[in-house]
User: Fold these one by one.
Assistant:
Number 1:
Amino acid sequence: MADRNLLKDPGREAGLFSDRLIFAIVACFMLASLLFIRYYYLQIEAYSTYATQADQNRLQTQPLAPRRGLIRDRNGLLIAANEPSFVLSVVVERTGGLDKVLSDIGAIIELSDEDLEVFQKRRPSTRPYAPVPLKFRISEEERARLAVNSYRLPGVVVEAQLQREYPLNTLFAHAVGYVGRINESELQSLPEGPYEGTFHIGKTGIEKYYEDLLLGTVGVQTVETDARGRIMRVVDRVPPVPGSDLDLYLDSDLQLAAANALEGSRGALVALDTDTGGVLALYSSPSFDPNAFVNGISFADYAALRDSKDVPMFNRALQGQYPPGSTVKPAIALAGLHMGLVTSETTVPDPGWYTIPGDDRRYRDWVLRIRGTGHAPKVDLHMAIAESCDVYFYDLAREMTVDRMHDFLAPFYLGQKTGIDTTNERSGVLPSTEWKRQNRGAAWYPGETLSVGIGQGYMLATPLQLAFMTSIIANRGHAVLPRLVQRINGELQEGERVELESIDDTYWASVIKGMEAVVHERSGTAFAMSRGLSYRVAGKTGTAQVIGIAQDEEYNEDDIAERHRNHGLFIAFAPADKPSIALAVIVENGGGSSAAVPVAKAVLEAWMAKQAQASAQAALNG
Amino acid sequence: MAEYLRRLPSSDGGFARRRSLWSVIRIDPWLLLGLVLLSGVGLGILNSAVDGSVAAIRRQSVYLGLGFVVMVVAAQIPIYRYSRLAPWFYMLGMIALILVLVVGVGAKGAQRWLSLGGFRFQPSEIMKLAVPLTVAWYLAKRSLPPGPKYVAAALALMAMPAVLIFLQPDLGTAILVAVSGFFVLFLAGLSWRYIASALGLILLSIWPMWHFVMKEYQRQRVLTLLDPESDRLGSGWNIIQSKTAIGSGGWDGKGYMQGTQTLLDFLPESHTDFIIAVLAEEQGLQGVIGLLCLYGFIVARGFWISYSATTTYGRLVGASITLTFFVYIFVNMGMVAGILPVVGVPLPLVSAGGTSIVTLLAGFGILMAVSQDKSPVN
């Protein structure tokens, strides 16, 4: 060691060190200059670029979702409200690893596969740094758990949002429809602007039909945020414009009366205000809870609804197309009178069946099975309506021919949509020779005309169409097309008025008298209804044969029998002399009209009670 | 030892001639002034970066205080004692580094900490000082410039800890530790030929390094550096944000505590590695120049002390510490400004830190010890 040290030359080493030190100092100086140049470039040369970038960085434009328009019944009762609820959203860009954050969330609160699926589908269409909703209706407890863990959930935000709620649950599911989360295909087809910040859209019913009005106009705010997206300051704000509020003609009390009366059966009721065409009640039984759809119904729940034999999702009032049966007879009687084929005195012999001249086939009257004979040796128009005599109408139909029947009934909107302001309305079928040629590719047989004459065969109508037909009869030749919405943001909406070609007043009187007899005469088919009525009702019963039920092996015998039973129908308006309400009821497999009549009565009673109350109130005030 | 004995009488004479107060307490006043100023400025910047968090400032102050105490103590130890202690220090550090890999405490996917009775420390911090001290100890005994055998041995001395640190994995510190040893070698007169061939070798080894040695996140860092826009929201985020913060500061800056990027949390790690962006944003280029000047003053003083040192050991240690200090500054400011990869090097005495502050100031303590290693006669 010592030897080596002695060999050292301190002077040379010092010189060498100085050289190297000078080199190092020069290098440091150059590197420092490089830094200076870099900072000079960034801060002086590129200043404006970065200054702009910095502004954009902290200033974000955010959509402000508008409040969805409210939907109220005619009494101001809320049918579709907006309730604050918490939504869990993820700002993907801030998570620093989405999969981990998602699994972390999943460990804290329950996430369904569907939540994740919809989230992933929605992701690509979301702007950068915009929150993507992951789970709706976060409970208080879930919120607390998320808050506690927020430090390890970057990019996760829980925001309050207004959510659609249907306080009356199942009562208006079919009448009003529901909103649901915007799905993938809707995302692609929707315009980008109006739905910024809105995650729900009307899926069916009024909610869908009036979507544009209910949605409102999206607002915009410019906010200063930090990198985690927390709003530090609102710089600029254009408030959203709330969606239009809709006041409906629907009356919750009538709706409830219908729901209670139809409880446990499959069927539907539509009641119209004869003056305005306003839909007073529109109920399809069984119903379902629209609230389940707002945030995405679980697959199991949906499957249960979809696969239920009672098809609760099926809107029988608008989509259900049934043979109208004898309910069509008043209109056909009117046609006969108007065309001069019969008078109110004309009689038809009724042995209990009818044959077309030159044909052996017997067309049976429904009463034959019960009494073994016809209604009476001679049946006139009044009796034919009151007792629903098939033979009378077989004869009338044959004389009228199907095409004239079609032309007369078409203005009643049978076989065509009424254009009611909601979705899913079906048109039914009003057959004609032309119709059969086009749809069945076959010629019309004379026997088929007889079936149509009693509302069977090819003829199909929705309860809405039957109710509308009834309101035309009630008003003796005119009516306003059915409407659900009475006021948009308080502004009265006028429905379209329909007027039949002039029909002699006495013809109307004859037909309506027959319809009154249905309820108020002992021989009337709905005489049972008259008990306790303080006003006159004009009605018509109907029975529709159920044909072509699929031989489903899963049905047990009782079930098959039940499902083969006839549909019961009933149309009515009241009061008979000064009508204010017209309605149609169907009870599927009700056996006969006796199942439908009480439903109609319940709703009529509810309506008339309200009318009486209102006039009493008016008298008191006046 | 012999060298020390030879130098002793003259040292005594120097002390006798001008025993200023500073000489008595063995502190270099200019260096101290620079460091105190820097620490003060650093605290000011940090205060803005943490948005006035009292806890963070208190913590930083505690470490700074501790660091200055360690510095003063380190300055009291004559430089020759460092020479003697260096190899032991080095061995201790190596053992600790091995322990870290075996029983270390992890954080963010890396094992860097060793827990000793509730006290956590990073053994790699020890090595930041132990490596240059040891390499200098090894080379100062030889006739300089060092022959190939000694160069190889010196390289091994710096490579071993560097590899262990790299395995933690902590590429940034590994490189800095190796570099601090290399500076000693360079200052000791490492032949330019070696340097040139080493550079050639490094260039050649880039390809295999890239494919077989570097980890994905390290490759990502380099790629992001080359094109930060390629991954705006991922690894490029930090660089884009820091550049935005710096650039938007302009000449004047946005004013103290007014930096929107910092206050609004866009700038990641704003109180640690990226703190220079806070200064650049709030004080503008003026502030950056001011800080650079302050650093320049300290570096210049460090070089002056090293130049004035009378022993080879003192010179090598002093200049190496100073150069390493400069490298910290350069690498940190370079990476934040987007001209170097993000390797996780704090800005000395400004970034919030713990043990690294103490280590850094301990280094300056050694530099002060070097400053007392003066020869009165030339």
Number 2:
Amino acid sequence: MSPRAPGPPVLEVEELSLELGIRGRWVQALDRVNLRIERGEALGLVGESGSGKSLTALSVPGLLPANARVTNGAIRVMGEHVLGRSERELASLRARSVAFVFQNPTTYLNPVLTVGRQIAEIFERSPELLDTTGRAAALSRLERRRRARHKSIEYLRLVRIPDPDRIVDQYPFALSGGMQQRVVIAMALARRPHLVIADEITTALDVTVQAQILGLLAELRRQIDMTLLLITHDLGIVAQLADRVAVMYSGRVVESADVRRLFRAPRHPYSRALLLAVPTLHGDRTVFRPIPGSMPAITDPPGGCRFHPRCPEVFGPCAAARPGVATVEDGHTVACHLYGGEG
Amino acid sequence: MAAPLVARLYEVAGQLRQARLAAAGGLVFLAILATGLAASALIPASVVRDVKFAAKLAPPSAAHWFGTDDFGRDLFSLVLLATHLDLRAALTVVSAALVIGVGLGALAGFVKGLDEPLMRITDVFLSIPSLVLAMAIASVLGRSLENLSLALVFVSWPIYCRLMRGQVLSEKEKPYVRALRSLGVGRVRMIVRHIIPNTVFPVIARAPADVGLILITLAALSYIGFGPGPYVPEWGSLVAAGQAYIFQAPWLVLFPGGAIFLTSLSLNLVGDWARDVFDPRLRS
Amino acid sequence: MSGLVAYALRRLAYLGLVLLGVSLIVFLLLRGMPGVDPLAAYIAPGLPMSPEALRGLRAELHLDDPLPVQYVYYVRDLLRGDWGFSRTAAQPVLDALLGRLPATVELAVVAVVLSALLGIPAGVVAALRKDRPADVAVRVVSITGISFPVFWLGILLQLVFFYYLQTLGLPSLPSRGRVGDLVALQYPLGPITGFYLVDSVLRGNAPFLASAVSHLVLPALTLSLISLAAVVRVMRASMLEVLRQDYILLARSKGLPGRVVVLRHALRNAITPVLTTTGTTLGILLGGAVVVETVFSWPGIGRLAAQGILNNDSVLVVGFTLFVATMMVFVNLLVDVLYAVVDPRVRY
């Protein structure tokens, strides 16, 4: 765990509520989500498909789909407000501040441009990245091109791509899935962003490649003190990489804690069930403990606490009222009636 | 990022507009078709020989709504009579080409051995521009509307064949086909009740627009000189005949040409909408 | 770049086979049509020939041999450059076509360039402003364009820009021929390539250039209409498809300005279907050239073919068909190679 560096939190999401337009109706997709990431920290955002974790992540750089609208809340990156900004200002934010790494590298790389070109255009957009002495504007176009290419190769090397001088001129389809994902990570790092958001970046990869990418991320974190928002449904990844964890269910953050504390003593029934649901070996047999039922469709949510139909500890107020957020320990919050808390 | 509601509004308005335009186009076409049928029944064919040199090249008037041509014949009657001829020819051509093309295409899709040779044949046909090939065929057969139609059928079937074949091939790979097979559904039943209905509609959806295209090609070939002669009214040859007097009597060119344009436009409006509705990519 | 060369050679071999197929069709049209006497095409009507001459002609054309043998002779002759003799042109067919080819090519090239210059931006704008007024306007123009009979458009343009402008006393655009007769006499051009635009520039013959350009305007505009509508539609549809892709989202997430995203990322991917359409539209253009050249009395291969039809000159018409098919094949080859240049995935 890296020591806390001074300065504003890199990311603050405050009471973010969001609606999606589905088949002519607005349905609530995010319900007062709160997140906070300090400098150098890695936050794991965990949840099943449909929990809202990707939507939360996409709202930070303003890349929400056309049918989404924010109804409440604020997002601040390095202390600056993000919501309501114009597209140009958001473009600035994306270029230097927040880098997004997507899930499936194959479809996210432009097939007709070389790898090097796709990295170099970052330096085209922000030439100040090329030059440490502050005289970026004075460089000739040719010089800038040369340096951009040089830097691209550097970043390819940083993400452990073998033979980067050759790869830089290759087209994406010539690379394996793992290499493609490294390229996308390189594109993120090249911007020297304050925050890297990684959205299920290993889900589309083989298990062995997955391990490599995760190892790379761990090493990079040590090397360059990266601030990371890691989105995943895989608790193993969280255990490996994250400092803190936030668990999401059906559009709400139900628990948020230090990673070791969450794994050792989860408070929210859903978090507990998630940890129990990881298959374990007991003697000769694998024990499966699935959570009964399934996540509700956002078009037809249950009343009160959204988890209550599946909760093993459901009681009185659960069906009627939405639970508030309670602080059970320093830095550990839970949204459950069992712990009280204010809405 | 545009407000999502506004974008959706525009999209819905667009779809509505397209549907309404298609409906309007359909109505116009049916009206033209009806006019053609009525004309062939009501207007005596002798009009084409109704030569009255005294009244030649008269501008539109109450007596002659479209004016008269260089033989003094009533242009309105001629244009209406031509409607029937042209439409009948175009519809026949497209229907025949559809039947042949869809049939052969389906065969190519289902019978392994026929696929390659049929595709090579269509390749060859498609490498010659339609107008040129139609010209060549018609010039060898002799100049008449029937031969022209025959030539156009030859020229049009390959595209339908290819389309149908492509559709069949991709439909065969769909999971539901395999699922039905594993349930024991017979081959013939599968083809007739499942595959054909799912594949033939996108191909047929092209027909309206193609009728418009064939119509224009037919008129163009007539214009060049393939036409059936001054005693058989046809829109293209009417325009050709009128071009010599274009400055003194522009109506000779405006009305027949306008008829072609109007018919083609209405067909294209319908065709556009039909293609969008039956677009295989939009159907999951 | 050897991948590119190998690809080009592969395509060439395949297209060679297609041409062979075309030659077969053309041969069948000429010699194999049931009920049609093949000799008829070679005899001028009204010009009686003695029986010996007829026999000699039959022997020369190998008409007494079985069809497959005739076909072999036919292909051999084609490859040797003997495509028959055209009554209409009073020249060997191949010479007649080649001589008039530059006129048609010049017209077609200008038409294609016009339709690309107008059509590609229109399609891009329509896609970016989908369903908004700009898009609607573009689509209206596009559908009107497709529905317009080409020959009618040519005639109408003549009416307005030639006849009516003249009556108003304004300078008008010419409606016939490639260059003014007077200008050709006063400022004769020594041809180099056969393309008037190129040659007049090379020779510094300004009046000729001006006249040639003014003569090109109406026919090229008419011809470009055909492909314009197709280009706009394909460009728009392709652009819409590409804009939905994931890599566009990534490009936006890099903070790249919108213009860069559209031009560099989207357009490069979206343009490939337009290229392949150009290949097919060329075919329609060549067909349209027959009509347009007739309307404007443009001395190209299209008008020659039209005259051949009126003259029952089957040898010429059939030769024209083969010629056009050959042109199409080569253009398609060019388009395929261009496609491989733009989209690197195709080369392997």
